[in-house]
Design a protein that fits this description.
Blueprint: H1 11-24, H2 37-44, H3 48-60, E1 64-67, E2 71-74, E3 79-82, H4 88-94, E4 99-110, H5 113-119, E5 126-136, E6 139-149, H6 166-174, E7 180-189, H7 192-197, E8 205-215, E9 218-228, E10 232-235
Parallel strand pairs: 3-10
Antiparallel strand pairs: 1-2, 4-5, 5-6, 6-9, 7-8, 8-9
The protein binds 2-amino-2-deoxy-6-O-phosphono-alpha-D-glucopyranose.
2-amino-2-deoxy-6-O-phosphono-alpha-D-glucopyranose binds near residues 165 and 225.
């Protein structure tokens, strides 16, 4: 492909198409270096500024990454998360990753006003509070904070969740099968504690998900999860609006 100077499409957009084709097509693989800004400028007859603008954009989108003094490289594709009532374990296994879970905090406490409202319970009802770091192939992916009423799983605190799925445990030990859920997803900045756990630079973006999961119409879990913005994207099929 070449840049068409007569085209109404801005040159940086044309270069973007060329680079995307190189990154996502068959040209380059993950961690391959792309040509330098100077090489790209010479090859396509573009100013250094135009080339930089295009690359900056692809870096910001997580398609490329820079190593100071070394160059610019092809980033790993993000994990496309389906919008479904899936457990982290199931989701990661389906993609061929080995899921992991490390407890950050687990305790039983009275539900605060907000958690109680979300769980449809009177404030002060005892709940399990579980904070976990979720990993895929040992790489930190998300920090998840779940609140579960004791009534569903009285001795949940005695079960290890290391390498075990919470949803599977609820089903197998307590007969609680989650059958519906609701979730909001928003962009957020990772808080400093989570950034350390996720090995992200301070101020990194995350996808903040708030989920309520139900079994037979009763709310079993209220969860807040921070997923790495550089590793995740959301994917959904679109049905026509009727
Ligand atoms: C997802 C949800 C969490 C839920 C978790 C259970 O990641 N965002 O709210 O707690 O799945 O995953 P697992 O069954 O692997 O522990």
């Amino acid at each position: 492909m070449a840049i068409d100077p007569a085209s109404p499409i801005p040159k940086y957009s044309q270069l973007r198409e060329i680079l995307l084709d190189l990154i996502e097509g068959s040209g380059l693989v993950v961690d391959d270096a792309i040509p330098s800004e100077r090489e790209l400028g010479t090859e396509y007859g573009l100013s250094r500024m135009t080339v930089r603008q295009t690359i900056d954009q692809l870096v910001a989108e997580g398609k490329l990454y820079r190593v100071p003094g070394k160059g610019t490289f092809v980033a790993r594709p993000k994990i496309a998360m389906a919008l479904a009532l899936a457990s982290f374990t199931h989701d990661m296994r389906q993609r061929g990753f080995t899921p992991g879970s490390r407890d950050i905090l687990r305790r039983i406490e009275p539900a605060g006003g907000h958690a109680a409202r979300m769980l449809d319970l009177p404030p002060g009802t005892r709940v399990h509070h579980i904070q976990r770091l979720r990993t895929a192939d040992d790489e930190p992916m998300a920090v998840e904070r779940s609140t579960i009423p004791l009534s569903f799983a009285p001795d949940l605190d005695t079960h290890s969740l290391a390498g075990r799925s919470l949803y599977q445990l609820l089903e197998e030990e307590y007969g609680v099968l989650l059958d519906s859920g609701e979730q909001t997803i928003e962009a957020a900045i990772c808080d400093p504690t989570d950034a350390k756990l996720l090995r992200l630079p301070p101020g990194s973006p995350v996808l903040l998900m708030q989920r309520r999961s139900f079994s037979n119409g009763r709310c079993v879990e209220v969860a807040t999860s921070s997923y790495r913005g550089d590793r995740y994207q959301l994917q959904t099929a679109l049905d026509p609006r009727r």
